[in-house]
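Lab notebook page, bench 4
Experiment: in silico fold of construct C2
Operator: M.H.
Input chain length: 90 residues
Purpose: comparison with the prior construct
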Amino acid sequence: MIKKTWFKWADRLYNWQLNEVVASLLEAAGPLTLLGAQAIYFGQPLLSVFAAKENTQALAELLESPTQQQAFIEVLRSYPLKNDSGGYSL
């Protein structure tokens, strides 16, 4: 399931030229991403000062699911996917 939030993240990572780096890190981290998700859930009250709760929740869900991770990696590797209106295609 591809989420619209992912395209916002992909846009920022692409602009910072970090899309390939993040994709490679997600692939290499393997089962450690589950620990990262748990850390995000645990630190969500503190992280809400720096990021919207929806974003931290979406990141934790992404890290928990290998299927979602693979889908996000594909988004990062095939980015940018802009449509005619300047937005992103789903």
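Observations: The mean pLDDT is 87. Helices lie at 4-15, 19-29, 32-47, 53-64, 66-77.
Next step: discuss at group meeting.
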